[in-house]
Amino acid sequence: MKCRFHIITYGCQMNRYDSSTLSEYLISRGHRWVDNLDDADLIVVNTCAVRQHAENRAIGRLKSIVARKKKNHNLKIGIMGCIAQQNGEKLFEIIPQLDFVVGTDQLPVIAQIAEGKFRCGTFVNANTDFMGIDSIPSITPGQVSTFITIMRGCDNFCSYCVVPYVRGRERSLPDEKILDEIARVVDNGIKEITLLGQNVNSYRYENVDFPALLEKVAQIPGVERIRFVTNHPKDFSDKILDVLEKYPRKIPPAFHLPLQSGSADILSAMNRKYSPDEYIALIENIYRRFPHSAISTDIIVGFPGESEQDFQATLNMMKAVNFSGVFAFRYSIRPGTAAEKLHHDVPEELKIQRLNQVIRLGIQLANNFSENLVGTIQDVLVERVSYKNPGKLRCTAPSGRTVLIDENSAEIGQIVPVKITAAKTWVLWGKIIS
Ligand code: SAH
Ligand code: SF4
After folding, report:
1. Closest-approaching ligand to the CA atom of 230
2. What homologous superfamily does CATH list for 145-369?
3. Does ligand 2 have an atom closer than 6 angstroms to the CB of 233?
4. Whole-number pLDDT of residue 302
5. pTM of the shown model
6. CB of 216 closer than 8 Å to CB of 179
7. Res. 119 pLDDT band, cuts 50 70 90
């Protein structure tokens, strides 16, 4: 039996990667992707449980989708990803019309459901051997950049975070498998690789650690640019910077280093295992070796016990580091985490006020970063024709900033030198120099 399927994806890049490999896997077994939900006989919603807001959105969407079963009696609808893993059977109480619940380690079951081997059920058993679906992510014609998963799960147990519970123990994929996958996507036209994991710095497969893997990737012919997310400040080593120094054109000094808080007490309660001083020392070392680094971060406001003083320490750290970009989140209680048991003493209105302050300062810092690039020459990767800016090509600078240049001035997939002429918070404009 062949089916027509559609996958809706919420959440992080890891979820996008899982949806993409699942889609490729289903297609390789003869099933067909359809863009329109009306044409589908299998709909899967891939979900995120990292914050309550993300959870509400996905559940709301599922509740509206299941209404389609009244019109199409053969339609099967299921949930996968982190909400599925976290809640299992309980989801049938919330959405009785659901057909299946598939956890993060059980994705291949969805092919069996598509093929009629199972009609419905809950498949959430943890499987520490699961390394993802053995299929390359789907590459569309003209695509120049893709994610490659190098590890799954997380062992850090930051006290606020649900990821170690829903994605299981940390395991690294064999380096040979990763290099093989990259060689295959490069054959399909990819120029830029982003290595993906919850904490890529703790990658280790046998005697290959993250810096060694990074170097192996840089040596693959055809790989023109390499990025990696996410770093953990406690595991970010000098050896990574040594590799960057050896491959300056391929690996730009752009680092996402989630700070979460600038207060020593809050960092300790978060179980982050670094102090503000250690974080600053790391950043100073990065700027010393790569003065033009782009350092971005994640901040959580309103963690239990966060005083005004703690919060001010976060704002001060943001200014001291001069982040190129800041992702700010309001603390959300996650069931089963260590922080769930703490006294939740920061009122919602105060959390919102603090969130707005962090966002405002983050935009100011991002503006400064972009404005400082005006007049410089940046080697940009030409990604595609811009959807929003007619007549322009959308490119990416080494820092990760979007750069717009005139259409017809370069080919998609090229890396070209561009003089930056104007800047907004997240977007730069430039002209190719000859
Ligand atoms: N492994 C990555 C990504 C984790 S989730 C990392 O460590 O950076 C992405 C971000 O979501 C985190 O960095 C954190 O800032 C935020 N986050 C995680 N759990 C949260 C929670 N319970 N409430 C608010 N934000 C949270
Ligand atoms: Fe969550 Fe911390 Fe692991 Fe990131 S490192 S996924 S924040 S537990």
Report:
1. 1
2. tm_1862 like domain (3.80.30.20)
3. no
4. 98
5. 0.95
6. yes
7. confident
